[in-house]
Amino acid sequence: MRETPRPQGTAGDTGSELPQRRPGRAFAHTTGASGSGTPHRSDGRPPHTPRGARHTGPAVRPGTTPPVPGRTALLVSVVSGLLALFALTTWQIAAGGPLRGLDERTGRALVGHGPARLTELLADLGNTQVALPVLGCAIVWSLVRGARREPFTAALTMTAVPLLVVPLKDWIARPGPLTDATGYYPSGHAATAAVAYGAAALLLAPYVRRSWMMPVAAVLLTAATGIGLVLRGYHWPLDVLGSWFLCGLLLLPLVLSRRSRRRSSSRTPSC
């Protein structure tokens, strides 16, 4: 008696046959229909990105620096602040405003204080015979070390001091604390000290180990000059402050030139 063969794939079948795929259905963890090798794709569509890679952010090209909006805003704020302070001081002195009266009362109260020899020495720091050789040595040293733009900018800045200060002195014609002679605002000695020592510090800072010491030394020398000028009665306090506001504007191009050179040198690959 012949046995009737049972159909394959029934519940009672204990054989090793695998279940058959249904047409048109995707099978998990298998290659795509076109054999692309991508494990979770069920069709043969090409990927949208090269080699199936997905970019998570914008590409950064080597050698480029992302823009810093805050840096421009800070520069505009500094320039605007210095211009406003210089304009306010000049207007008060020229028009005889309340600040001029307060300035003259303060100046008269300060004249003669401190050791005479020390205050005279401090005031002499603003003489061209003292300040210009310091700047000249810094310019020569910077040129020897290979800098070109910064020494030229420093020399132009120092040249601009008398071109701006002398006409202002003649126009405002302010008398001095201990004399009736005019031409005391703004202070030429304070301006000479600020530009000479400030520019020298900016030129020498890249070549010293502790670069922050150079600007600190320039600020101390400039402040000492102004203190000596006021205590000796050579200038009113606002004569000195007005010069500092003006010279802060004059030194800004040199500050920007030095920062630009420092950023470019940091992007240059080392050999």
3D structure, described in words:
With 271 residues, the chain is mostly helical. The protein has eight helices and no strands. It is globular.
How many helices? The count is: 8
N-C termini distance: 94 Å
* Residue windows where pLDDT falls under 50 for at least 5 positions: 9-17, 24-43, 52-67
Q: What radius of gyration results from the CA coordinates?
A: 38 Å
Following the backbone from N to C, one meets helices and strands in this order, namely: HHHHHHHH
Please state roughly what percent of the residues sit in beta strands, choosing from under 5%, 5-15%, 15-25%, 25-35%, 35-45% or over 45%: under 5%
Helix percentage: 55-70%
Q: What's the number of extended β-strand segments?
A: 0
SS-derived structural category: mainly alpha
Overall body shape: globular
Average pLDDT rating: 81
Task: Summarize the biggest pleated sheet.
Answer: none
